[in-house]
Amino acid sequence: MTSLRPLIPILTAAGILLGGNGLQGTLIALRGAQEGFSPAAIGFMGTAYFAGFLIGCLVIVRMLRAVGHIRAFSALAAIAAAGTLLMAIAIDVTMWTAVRFISGFCFAGLFTVMESWLNSGVANADRARVLAFYRIIDLGAVTGSQFLIPIVGVEGFPIFAVMAIMITLSLVPVSLGDRSNPSPPEDVKLDLKRAWQISPVAAIGCIAVGVTNSAFRTLSPVYAQDIGMSVADVATFVSVSIIGGVLIQYPLGYASDRHDRRIVLLVTTGLAMAAALALGLFAGGDRLLNFALVFVFGSFAMPLFSLSAAHANDRAAKNEYVMLNAALMLFYSFGAIGGPFAAATVMQWYGPQALFLFSALVYAIFITLILYRMRRRAPAPSTERGRFTALLRTSTIFARLAQRGGSKDTNGRER
């Protein structure tokens, strides 16, 4: 653990920020609905967030080169905290949409800074452990933060103050950590055309997952509240889906390492579609049934990005891993920009259950495309198949952090 000790401050900051980001996403939906914002307006706020996130991913490396990690982190955290407080002062759809855009930009930059820092500070032998800690922190922070909402309450100023405090406190371990400011990372070379050529299935899959997961992340609290759940139940509803995705991701990854990944991707997408249809058609206002079905939905919807990326990596050259995974995250972001507003519009026309019927339709289209591509192209040979790696969609730098921790072929050779 000695070699990991210098990374404790940045991992602590990551936990605080991941929790604050997860809390903000749920609160915006709940408080917005309470303030009378339409589902379409709340969905457009989600669209604004992911648009800002995409732009942040593209420009943050230049900022790091200009001012360094600590100054960039401090500036972005200050802006994000100020934006959070501004939402409490000015309760207005236009203002909240603008703040969500800025928040997306800031969080993309903050996650990039943290993951660049981790990447520069971790030894190759420790990458697997650091990745495991980071994923545990992600799960614990995002699920735990949901329950601050029923504790503090949705109404009034305090919950916004709690979010601003969390974002501000992330500055403390970064500022007082005993590690020197690392060198800025190189720009991630993006080649979307090449990424598409490597695997159309993966590219389309990441777009589809972006559409559905962003819609769920933005609007599931609205769905849960509209069918009569309490604030505590809404927090549980969101958390259960995240836990399901984490628990089932690795068994699915294990299966995909041993079989044609497209078959695993096909089955997983089909099960996510079935769960979405069940939520949309049969769950109604039954609280326990909704919890059970959203657990199944999260179990199969959340791992789809990592499964798509693993399939693409099987067909990539060894020097294309970072470029490819960064490009796939941008494909995800393209889908995420459109998903919340499209799903919210459908919800406004047909009711809260339309959120999951919309997702089921997207999955049905993706399944059709997988079947089409399976007829056009043979599976990747088992000797060229890499190991499954669970990827977080936090920044384009995450691919570098995961590169040596999980990118070996089935014979143990580094790719």
TrEMBL record:
Keyword Lipoprotein applies: no
Gene3D superfamilies per record: MFS general substrate transporter like domains
InterPro entries per UniProt: MFS, MFS_dom, MFS_trans_sf, MFS_YcaD-like
Residues covered by the Major facilitator superfamily (MFS) profile domain: 198-415
Keywords from the UniProt entry: Membrane, Transmembrane, Transmembrane helix
Domain of life of the native organism: Bacteria
Transmembrane segments: 41-61, 73-91, 97-118, 130-151, 157-177, 198-216, 228-251, 263-282, 288-310, 322-342, 354-372
Presence of keyword Nucleotide-binding: no
Protein name per UniProt: MFS transporter
Organism, as annotated: Neoaquamicrobium sediminum
